């Protein structure tokens, strides 16, 4: 009986498996950031124990950081304190920090892959639910809480029950104007925000296979938005090509040995999954969300469901959601005025996302009354964008290219969408208040967001490409 | 926050909304504290208070007839962000049990790691709890972790709930995961020695 990719990796990381206990699973890479780590370091201090394997933990400051004037002290006192505490904690415990001003600083899920820290076959955790992003490399990567951050700092292991396995296959080819973000928004809209809870997902099929690494990261990133513990994609030539030569990737003879091992990382033909879902890429159109969880999405030309189509029990939550959004059941979204456009977050802030937006907006101007924030995922993405002249294209279009961080995805810094305003956002969550108190979020792809920036309203990007 | 959990009889606070995400439980702008205390103040902040900090009268936490150490919520409770601050806020406010017909995975782990018991019941039993509270806000629920049962005192209706045996032992005895993992040091080191690569 063959094994799934997930089981191959899990099994090779089980340190102790005892009946009645969760498995003690070894963690290869632990990413930490300023928001979910202070209490964990405090826990170590109280127990009087060190970080067990300092070289396997990497830190960066991303959630709280301003995205302009990063060379100045952080104005907001509490944010500043958290970022400073990360500096003192990492220094005291001997953990490497890519803090503000460091050329490697950026959103934790952007820097891991681009530095070659994220590798196939790894187990990776971070106190952030979008850790699932790293699964794009054929790694088991998932978000954890702060008590678990403390466990991993203390022992390089985590206690976990093996989740169930789900395969999501997307066959066929994507249509023009449809990108990886649309695939994942489509899947979540079909199976709901809790449709994969309890599962670890493997994405497969021609439409997934044909994606670049960065596009695959967008898919895996949003696995958590359907409740999955994480999502992964078997590594292939696209993966190896991406990793080769990156800062911390294996080199020389080490590379050859690693590559030989990575080539064994796939789901065996006779392996079985607890659940298999199949979709056709040709059915997917540019997607947009209308509600307050990522499962509330529709094709951009479709209409919001009617109240009558809901089950009785779902009605109060559905109504609450639409009231918050200021939208009517049954309405379409095309032409709806947009006030803000946010292109950024661990979902869509990589160089390919910026290139996609730049290609589209080149020679165009943003609509007058729209504010457009473009927030690169890392210092390296920012530098690359400048090297390619992408910043100039944005400037000419009236966009502002800011500095790296999580920014308006969750509005922990100053980048908040004002109350009542509509923001079309390439981030991952449209929860109430996510982008600022009473802010209203439409989740969409970078391409759809760019189209809205130009027209000032929700637009079918296919008409413009 | 109590460091053990065995048995609880309490009235309950009902929030019959589905997909309550951790951004509602504790909005991101309140995640800036560097200790685990004080998050209860901002539990459900934007549902509980107007932007001028006036309490919203129609929100259940501001309605004095509903109180107790049990929170009852619609399905897929705790979805979204992995922030353990959500569990800290719930615990700090004074809840020891959260009942729903479905929990997001990370929230469930975070709750258990903070000695808050997440109890998953069927949709039907959840409805029964909501109606019992609707009928009488003073309706009591009885939780017995040892027997893994949840009873609606007024009607005597009872549901059995699942919890993994390891976590059950931890809750009853006040053990935490780190104590156990630290005891595996030898095994961890020999695992490391057996691996050629760090992947």
Explain what the structure shows.
The complex is a heterodimer of chains A (465) and B (199). Chain A is of the alpha/beta class and 465 residues long. Chain A contains 15 helices and 19 strands. Helices cover 31% and strands 17% of the residues of chain A. In chain A, strand 3, helix 2 and strand 4 form a beta-alpha-beta unit. In chain A, helix 6 packs parallel to helix 8, helix 12 packs across helix 14 and helix 12 packs parallel to helix 15. The model of chain A has no long low-confidence stretch (mean pLDDT 97). Helix content of chain B is 32%, strand content 17%. In chain B, strands 4-3-2-1-5-6-7 form a 7-stranded mixed sheet. The interface between A and B is large, with 78 and 57 residues.
Listing every helix as H and every strand as E from the N terminus to the C terminus, the arrangement of chain B reads EHHEHEHEHEEEHHH
Strand content bin of chain A: 15-25%
Instruction: Give the low-pLDDT segments of chain A.
Output: none
For the largest beta-sheet of chain B, the strand count, sense and barrel status come to: 7 strands, mixed
Average pLDDT number of chain A? 97
Largest pleated sheet of chain A: 5 strands, parallel
Q: What is the share of helical residues of chain B?
A: 25-40%
Cα distance spanning the termini of chain B: 38 Å
Q: What topology, given as strand order, has the largest sheet of chain A? A: 5-4-3-6-7
Strand order of the largest sheet of chain B: 4-3-2-1-5-6-7
Judging from the principal axes of the Cα atoms, what is the shape of chain A? Answer: globular
Which chains make the largest contact?
A-B, 78 and 57 residues
Please give the radius of gyration of chain B in angstroms: 18 Å
Total strands of chain A: 19
């Amino acid at each position: 009986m063959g094994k799934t990719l997930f089981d191959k990796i899990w099994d090779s990381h089980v340190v102790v498996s005892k009946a009645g206990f969760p498995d003690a699973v070894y963690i290869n890479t632990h990413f930490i950031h300023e928001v979910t780590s202070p209490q964990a370091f405090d826990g170590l201090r109280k127990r009087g124990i060190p970080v067990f394997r300092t070289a396997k933990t990497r830190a960066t400051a991303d959630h709280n950081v301003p995205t302009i004037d990063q060379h100045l002290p952080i104005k907001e006192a509490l944010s500043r304190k958290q970022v400073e505490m990360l500096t003192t904690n990492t220094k005291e415990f001997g953990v490497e920090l890519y803090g503000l001003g460091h050329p490697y600083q950026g959103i934790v899920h952007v820097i891991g892959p681009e530095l070659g820290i994220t590798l196939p076959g790894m187990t990776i955790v971070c106190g952030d639910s979008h850790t699932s992003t790293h699964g794009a490399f054929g790694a088991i990567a998932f978000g954890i809480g702060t008590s678990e951050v403390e466990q991993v700092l203390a022992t390089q292991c985590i206690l976990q029950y093996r989740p169930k396995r789900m395969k999501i296959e997307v066959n066929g080819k994507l249509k023009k104007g449809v990108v990886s973000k649309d695939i994942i928004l489509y899947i979540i809209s079909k199976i709901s925000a809790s449709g994969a809870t309890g599962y670890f997902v493997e994405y497969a099929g021609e439409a997934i296979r044909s994606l670049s690494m960065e596009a695959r990261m967008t898919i895996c990133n949003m696995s958590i938005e359907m409740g999955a513990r994480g999502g992964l994609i078997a590594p292939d030539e696209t993966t190896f090509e991406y990793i080769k030569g990156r800062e911390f990737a294996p080199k020389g003879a080490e590379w050859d040995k690693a590559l030989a091992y990575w080539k064994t990382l796939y789901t065996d033909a006779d392996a079985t999954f607890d659940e298999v879902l199949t979709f056709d890429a040709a059915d997917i159109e540019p997607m947009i969300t209308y509600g307050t969880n990522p499962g509330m999405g529709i094709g951009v030309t479709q209409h919001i469901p009617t109240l009558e189509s809901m089950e009785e029990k779902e009605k109060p939550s559905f109504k609450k959601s639409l009231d918050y959004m200021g939208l009517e059941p049954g309405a379409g979204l095309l032409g709806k005025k947009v006030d803000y456009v946010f292109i950024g977050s661990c979902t869509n802030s990589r160089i390919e996302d910026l290139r996609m937006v730049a290609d589209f907006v080149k020679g165009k101007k943003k609509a007058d009354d729209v504010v457009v924030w473009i927030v690169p995922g890392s210092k390296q993405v920012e530098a690359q964008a400048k090297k390619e002249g992408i910043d100039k294209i944005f400037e000419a279009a009236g966009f502002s290219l800011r500095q790296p961080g999580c920014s308006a995805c969750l509005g922990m810094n100053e980048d908040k969408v004002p109350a009542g305003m509509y923001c079309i956002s390439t981030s991952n969550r449209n929860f109430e208040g996510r982008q600022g108190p009473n802010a209203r979020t439409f989740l969409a792809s970078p391409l759809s967001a760019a189209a809205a920036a130009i027209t000032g309203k929700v637009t079918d990007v296919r008409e413009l490409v | 926050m109590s460091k053990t959990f065995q048995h609880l009889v309490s009235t309950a606070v009902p929030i019959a909304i589905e997909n309550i995400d951790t951004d509602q439980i504790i909005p991101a702008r309140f995640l800036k504290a560097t200790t685990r205390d004080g998050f209860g103040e901002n539990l459900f902040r934007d549902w509980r208070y107007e932007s001028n900090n006036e309490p919203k009268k129609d929100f259940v936490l501001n309605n004095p007839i509903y109180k107790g150490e049990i929170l009852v919520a619609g399905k897929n409770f705790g979805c979204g962000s992995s922030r353990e601050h959500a569990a800290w806020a719930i615990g700090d406010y004074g809840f020891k049990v959260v009942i729903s017909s479905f929990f997001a995975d990370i929230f469930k782990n975070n709750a258990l790691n903070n000695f808050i018991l997440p109890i998953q019941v069927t949709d039907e039993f959840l409805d029964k709890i909501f109606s019992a509270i609707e009928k009488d806000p003073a309706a009591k629920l009885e939780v017995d972790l040892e027997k893994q049962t949840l009873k609606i005192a007024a009607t005597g209706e009872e549901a059995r709930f699942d919890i993994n045996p390891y976590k059950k032992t931890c809750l009853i005895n006040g053990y935490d995961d780190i104590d156990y993992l630290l005891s595996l040091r030898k095994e961890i080191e020999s695992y490391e020695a057996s691996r050629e690569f760090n992947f």
